[in-house]
Each structure stands twice: as C-alpha cells, then as structure tokens.
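Researcher: Please predict.
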Amino acid sequence: MQTLVRAFDNKSPAVDQALSTLNLSQLSGLAREYEAPRLARYINRSLQRIGVLTWQEIPDDPKAMGAYVHFEHPLGAITLEPVATDEGVVWQFSPETLQNIRAVYAALDNMPPSALKYVQPQVESLYFRTRDAVRGYLPTLVKRAGPMEIWQWLGLGLVLFLAFGIGKLVNMSFYALVIGRFLPSADHTSLTRFFFLWSFRLMVLGVLLRASDHVLAYPDLVQVVIAAISWSCVILSGMMLVLLAIGLIVERMKSAGIAGENHFTLISFIAGIIRIVVIVSAVLLLADVLQVPYQSVLAGLGLGGLAVALAAQSTLQNFISGITLYFDKPIAVGDYCKFGDKTGTIEFIGLRSTRIRTLDRTVLTIPNSEFSNMQIENYAKRDSIFLNSVLKLRYETTPDQLRFVLVELRKLLLGHPKVASDPLRVRFDGFGSHSLDISIFAYVMSSDYTEYVAIREDIYLRVLQLIEASGTKLAVPAVVHYNTRDHMPDKAIGQESEAHVQEWREEGRLPFPDFTWQEKAALRESLDYPPEGSVEYAKVKHN
C-alpha cells in the first residue's frame, strides 16, 4: 500500500511501481495496458477519500498468509493479499478490489468535503480532470448507467459522430490533393469513392476510439470491446486503403500506357500477389488483436499448401514457364511467329497459357509449359527479309544473252534502294529439266511483310522488263502441250544484247565473275523506288 501511495506522490507518477502492487491475473490482456494504470489511480484516490493513512495501523508481517481488508463498503472492499511470485511472496491488491474499485470510488466521491481536508494535491490524469470538471458542472452526469457513467456514454456517442464527419473531410481532402491530381476521373468510379469514404471513416473511428480512452477511461468490460473494435477498424480500413491504392495504381499504369499489354499481365499478377499478402496479413493481425488462436491453423495451411502444390504440379509448371517467357522475352504481344507447324500473331501472354491468333482467325491457346519448349521462330524480330528466287530462262538463250541478263539483274538489285548490297548474289545456277536457272539471293531491307511483298513485286516487274530487253523469254515446262503456234524469241533483240556483251568483252569490262567495287558504288541506289509514275513516288520526291 505504501508503495502505491508513494508512486503517485511525485509530479511524475511512477506508474510501473504502482502497477507492481496490483494483482492483474484476472484482467484481460487486451485492456491491461490501458486499464491497469487507471485502476491504480482509482485505488489511490479512494484511499485519499477514506482518510489519512496511519502506517502503524497497517500490518507489515511478511509471513502473514491471510488477506488484509483495509476498507469495506457495500459495493466492494479494498483488500490486500499475499501472492506467490518468482521472487517470493508479495502483497498486492486483490482482483476483487480491482473489479469493484470504480463503484467504490464513485460512492466515496460523494463524501462531504470535510472528509477531504487531509488530501494532498496531486497531478491527476486527463480522465480524472475531465471527470472532476463534469462532476462540478453537472453532477448527474457522473451517475452510472450500466458499465459506464452517463458522461462516458455521451462522450462515446460524440466520438462516433465526429468519426463520420472527420472521415468524410479526410476523404474529400485526399481526393482533392492526391487522387484528383494523379488519376483521371474515369479511373475512380462511384464504387471506388464509396470504399474510399468508408475506409477513411473506419480509420478515423478506430483512431478516435483509441485516443478517446485517455479521456473517457473505458472500464475493463467496455475496454475489451472498444479496443477490439478500434484495432479492427484500423486494420480493416488500412487493408481496404492499400487494396484500393493498388487497384488505382494498376489502372493508372494501364490507362497512361506506362506498361505495355505484355507487361501489364505480369503487373496485374504481382498486384494480385500483393493483395493476397495484404489480406492474409490483415487477417492475422485481426486474429492477434481478437486473441483468436491461429498458430495451429497456419501449421495446417502449411501442410495443405504442400499437398496443393503436389496436386497442382502442371499448373506450377505453366506458371514458372510464364515467368520465364516474361523475363526471357522471346516473344511479345503483336509478334508474328511460327511455332511447331503453326503460325500466328501473339495476342496474350498469361501466367498459365499463351493465346495466338492464327491465319484462319481462330484463337489457339497453348499452355506455357508446352509453349516454352517449342522451337519459336519470331518473324517480328527480323531486321530484313530474305529474297530467294530462281529465274528460269529458255534453252534457246545464248551464252551472251545469259551474261547480259546476269549483269542487268545485278545492276537492278545493286541499284534498288530497298535491297541490301551485301550479301547479294545473282548466279547462273545450272541446267533445269526445261530451263537455264538463275538463282537470286538478296535481302530486302524491311521488317514489315506487307512492305516486303510490295518491294518484291516491284523487283519482279523490273525483271520482266529486263528479260524482254535481253531478247530471251522465261522457260515453259516441256511437258506442256500447245495447240497454238509458239512465239520464238526476237532474234533482232537477242542479237542486240549479244552485241552489248561482245562490246564489254572487247573493252575488257565484262563483269564476270562480279562487278568492280567502283561499279558497285556507282550503281548503289541508282534506281527509283517507289517507281516513277506511282503515287508513292510523288510523295518521296516531294519530301
């Protein structure tokens, strides 16, 4: 008793010293942190109202085993009893004293002022100062109504009212300062606003309930409920705010185009994992606050997770393969690829499967574990497109005509601005069953297949003009039977092309096996493409 009284004699009360005199075994762990210091003050203020303590009248035999009743009242008694601890037997105020001390103090609080003439002024807590002020202004408010006094009930109602109002103000400020600046209105629907509003209201309610305990000093029975509600509000609102923030960030990244469609799937998956972690953490925190045993549940979940992992082995393989596709990046959404015996455009890369739009406009879905093991040929990654063709001339073509065609073909490809100069080959390749074969090996400088087809068409049309100018013709399969008279090659034109070759031979300019580097440089991009007279030609010349 002396320890408790002296703990409050100083301007800075020794709360820990006072708590050592209380038997808190019957006090709930959730409320012990807040309720125990107030119970110590209740006992101290009750002792002050009982009268001046005479230490000689209080037994001090450490070996005494019986309880000492210092004060009795119809509403309860102030009793000390010996308690066995690790440090030996100590005397503490009994759990019954702690249970009834509020009612005893309320009865003693109505004693005549003359009974307080020996009470020394002390620094009181905010709760007792508030209660004394309420009692001085309107004494009827300190009457008990159930587990609390009337003024405490009114204060609790005020807290609830303020929580809803302040929560709405905080929500409006948050939208004005944060959401409105960084997110367009289309990204936060009325449902999102609703959840934000109630999240802030719950957060403010939890904080105010927790803070109001310093003023209202809820008793143990109410303290347990208030503490559980306040922490639950804070945890649930925090969880909702984090989930809403994650959703808004992901939507912002999608609407602003910060992440491509390929990466957006991975971002959505990571956001989903974070959501699960947040929800599980919130549930565990709630279980801890509400003192719900969850250790055995976690152990069961661990064993269950192992069983699920074994059962979902193929799903895990698809998931790991999906992650590999994301980080290895052999393909991307929009790429045109060949895989196995199929070709198509990649439409979606998920964590379980990949979807491909085939040339038949059907959607082919392939599990990632299977897709990642395929040999994938990505046409979208090429920097140029291979042009490989065989030109078949008639057997009536003379050697010099053939030389003329080879030279002009090389000039054509070297001069074309859309054909790479190296590697480039145009060679007489051999004797076919019904033709003299010329192989063309070149690269068109375009990665777009549609553009490549247009360039190839232009080259082929020029080749036809070139063959006609040489005086020869394309070969016709020998197995074909004609009912009409065959048109033989024009001898005059053929003789002209032969004369060109003879001239090159006499002047020592016969470009075989190849052109000189000076001739190649002079021929480079000497042709017009797009061809003169076309719509695109005018645009190019204008630019």
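Model: Residues 220-255 form the longest helix (36 residues).
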